User: Fold this.
Amino acid sequence: MPLPVAASDAISAFEAIVLGIVQGLTEFLPISSSAHVRIVPALFGWPDPGTAFTAVIQLGTMAAVLIYFRRDLLYIVRAFLGSVGDRSYWRSPDVDARTGWYLIIGTIPIAVIGLVLKDTIETGVRSLELIAVMLMLFSAVLWQADRIGSRTRELEQVDRRDAIVIGFAQALALIPGVSRSGATISFGLFQGFTREAAARFSFLLSVPAVVLSGLFELRKIGDGTGVGAGATLIATLFAFIFGYASIAWLLGYLRTHSLGIFIRYRLALGAFVLVLALAGAIS
Assistant:
C-alpha cells in the first residue's frame, strides 16, 4: 500500500523512495548522483523532480557523512575554532585545524560559481544528451587519474594547494554527469593521494557545499512549483540510509580495488542514455 503524499507533490511516495535510494547509493560513488536522479525518472516516464529536490535530498546523504565521520569532524571543528582564536589560520601546526581551513578554501569555488551560474544550472545543463556525454567524457578523467596517480600521500598531508585544486574540481560537478565525488577523487589522485585518502577528503569537502546548497533550495520545497514536502522528506530519509551504507562500502572497496568498475559503468550508462535520448525514446 503506497504511503500517502500531499496532492501537490509532483511525484508519488513510491517514486520518492526509489529516487532516495538512487541518491543514497550514487552520491558517494564516482558515477554522478544528480545524473541518476535525472535519468531514472526519464527511463520510467516520471516527472523530472528538478534541481531543488535533488539539492535538498542530498541533505540526507550529508547526514550520513556527519554521522560516519562524526569524530573526525568534531576534532576538525574544535581545532579550527582554536586556530581562529590564535590567528594561526591554515598555518596552524595542528593537522585538524589546517583541514578545517582547507575545507572552507575548497568550498569557495563551488559556492561562487554556483551562485553566479544558478539559472544556467537549474535549466540549461539538465538535458539527457549532455548528461550522457559528461558521463562518458569524465570516465576518461577517472581512468587517467587512477592510472598515473602516485597514490603515496595520506589525508594528513593535504595542503592549501590541494584544497584549491580539488575545490575547483568539485565545482565541475555543478554539471550533472560529472560527479562531485568523481571529480574530487580524481583530482585528489592527480595530487598524489591514495584512493582512500582522496575519497575521505572528498566526503569531508562535500559537507559545506551540499549543506549550503540544500538549505538554499529548501525554500522551494512545497511552494507549489515542484516536489512537495512529503515526497522530499521520504526521499531524504532513504538517501540517508543508503548513503551511510555506500560510504562504508566505498572506503573499504578502494583500499584494494581500482576505479575500473566505475569507469566501465559510466561508459555503458552514458552510451545507453545517449542512444535512447537521440532516438527520442526518453526525454
User: Anything to note?
Assistant: The first helix runs from residue 13 to 26.
